[in-house]
Structures are given as C-alpha cells and as structure tokens.
Design brief:
The chain has one domain: NADH Oxidase (3-Layer(aba) Sandwich), CATH 3.40.109.10. The N and C termini lie far apart (48 Å). The chain has eight helices and nine strands. α3 packs antiparallel against α7, α4 packs antiparallel against α8 and α6 crosses α7. The protein is globular. It is of the alpha+beta class and 246 residues long. It has a seven-stranded antiparallel β-sheet, sandwiched between helices. A two-stranded antiparallel ribbon has the order 2-3. The structure holds flavin mononucleotide (FMN).
C-alpha cells in the first residue's frame, strides 16, 4: 500500500503536473493580503533601517543554536519584535514583475506567507492576536479576546511554551500565490519556504537575547479555526515560539 506521504511525493513529480495558471496567462494574485477589516487598529513598528541591534558572529550563532522552550517573564521590546519580523518576512524591494524580494528566499519569489502573531509579552503592545503587514512593516490587531493564548496553546497540543512565550509566530500559506505558478508541486514549496523563515527566526532570536522553538505538532483545523482561515485557500504551515532567555 502507498501511504499518503509517498503518494504526495509521487503525484507532485513534474510528469504528473498540469499546465500552471501562470502559463495559461491567468492574472497573478496580490502580493500580500489586504487588511482583514478596515476597522482593525494598526500598530506601527520601529523601522528596520533604524534598528540598532547588537552584532553577533554568524558562525557563533549557528554553532550555539538550540531549541529553547523555557522563557523568562521579561518582555521583548518593540524594536526586538520589529527585528524578528524583518528578518523572517521583511520586504526589501517590490520588483516590476511585480514580486516581493524579502530577507528570506522563496520558490519563484512567490512568498506565500502571512504571519500571525500571538503576542503575550511585548512592551507597549496589548496581548492578543495580530497579523504582520509587511509592506507597511506594521501589525494589524485582529483580536484581544480573553483566553486566546490558552486556545492557541491547546491547538499546539498543549505545548506550554506557547502560553509562556513572549511571542508566537504562526506562518500561514496563501495557497494560490504559489499554486498560480507551480500547481500541485507548490505544496512542497510551502514547507521548504517555511524552513528558511524559521531558521532566520532561530538565528535572529539569538541577537535579541532570546530563544526560539519551531512547532509542527499542532491540530491544523483548530489553529486555522482560531485564525479564521478556511484551511484550504489559507492554512497554517509552521509555528514557532520566542521568549527572553531565562
Ligand atoms: C519541523 C520541526 C518541527 C518541530 N516541532 C516541534 C514541536 O512541535 N515541539 C517541540 O518541542 N519541538 C519541535 N521542534 C524542535 C525539535 O524538537 C528540535 O529542533 C530537535 O529536538 C533538535 O534540537 P535542537 O533544535 O536544540 O538542536 C521542531 C523542529 C522542527 C525543525
């Protein structure tokens, strides 16, 4: 019997693919999602080019990288959060194609992710659920509902580091952004792209004296439901917690 994983690899080989929508001449989808609701407050973040972060030797950072699951109560600063967002999804340029060029690579520069944040402890930002607006380098406040952290922790199979993190990153893929170009093979690329993003978060966390831990153990339908995603056109691919080192 061929299991689902094997079938996925088999059926996303080039010889199984149909012509992509891009090749058929269909228009490409927007580079980023618009604000969910115009009434949502927007939280501005310190501009990336003005951040003064401590210098850290790259080889040392790679050598010392570990997953950190226990955090101090100390909050992250807004500059630190700004830096983490910049290093994981920051837009450096919008090309004439148009496409975004970011601090991380992405297959075909399709950059399918929308980053949601569970903010528990960041100085001057109310605890709640936010979405990163990469073109504005700002946050859209989505919900300040009580109990969000507990619900997201439960969706992550009760991994306490989510509740205890300063901030938890939730990377969701907008299916058609990548699918438009790559069709079914694009599903492979969501997961590959996400690895690059989270690796930057691991390394950037070290710069802001924090630890990070990637999370793939989550209940898809639960986390997508909390974020208000349908799970097909947009769905969670990867999650990571960050918090100050104890
Ligand atoms: C794709 C992926 C998913 C992971 N999911 C979890 C997780 O759900 N919970 C967790 O505690 N650690 C998770 N981790 C962290 C790994 O357990 C960790 O990287 C591994 O044990 C090696 O330890 P190190 O990162 O300290 O080198 C994940 C790591 C990766 C790359």
């Amino acid at each position: 019997m061929i299991g689902q994983g094997k079938r996925f690899m088999e059926e996303t080989k080039y010889r199984c693919l149909e012509e992509s929508d891009q090749n058929k001449g269909l228009p490409q989808p927007p580079l980023v999602l618009p604000m969910d609701d115009d009434k949502h407050p927007v939280v501005d973040l310190p501009a990336p080019q003005e951040l003064k972060m401590p210098k850290l030797d790259l080889t040392e950072a790679i050598n010392n990288r570990v997953s950190v699951r226990k955090y101090a109560d100390k909050p992250l600063s807004q500059s630190e959060l700004s830096y983490l967002l910049w290093t994981t999804q920051g837009i450096k340029q919008v090309t004439t194609r148009p496409a975004t060029l970011r601090t991380v690579p992405s297959a075909g520069s399709r950059h399918p992710f929308e980053t949601y944040l569970l903010i528990n402890r960041v100085q001057g930002i109310e605890a709640g659920l936010y979405r990163y607006l990469p073109l504005e380098h700002a946050l859209e406040q989505i919900s300040l509902e009580e109990g969000l952290a507990d619900r997201i922790t439960a969706a992550c199979m009760r991994q306490a580091m989510v509740r205890n993190s300063g901030v938890t990153f939730i990377w969701t893929a907008v299916r058609y952004r990548t699918y438009w170009r790559y069709g079914e093979r694009g599903y492979r690329y969501f997961h590959l792209d996400a690895g690059h993003v989270c690796q930057n978060l691991y390394l950037a966390s070290a710069v802001v004296d924090s630890g990070c831990c990637g999370i793939a153990a989550f209940f898809d339908d639960d986390i997508n439901g909390i974020l208000g995603l349908d799970g097909e056109e947009q769905f969670t691919v990867y999650i990571a917690t960050v918090g100050k080192k104890p």
